[in-house]
Please model this.
Amino acid sequence: MVETGSPLVKESAICPDADSLQCQSRFYDVRAAKQGEGLAVCWRDIPGRVLAERALRETTELLQPLVQASPIVIVAIDTGRNAHRASKIPQRPAPKSR
Model:
């Protein structure tokens, strides 16, 4: 990074005390960039965002197969009153020819 001048952006999970039975992961957003002849580094503790993203991913993985297998059309309407179809339109069987 210092050689190329490209900024580094990294999310990292660390465990403050690996020997503790009460160990909880900590999540940080770490950014570093070349600044003049030196290096500037900043980090933010982001456990809330990481846990929210994980919960959203788990919920999506759970619900998506149910929505796709639904025999009805499921539509979500956002606060701007825009409709978003969440499921496929069920296919009707072709009529039998006589």
User: Anything to note?
Assistant: The beta strands are 8-14, 26-35, 38-45, 75-77, 83-85. The chain is about 25% helix and 30% strand. Residues 26 and 97 are 65 Å apart (CA to CA).
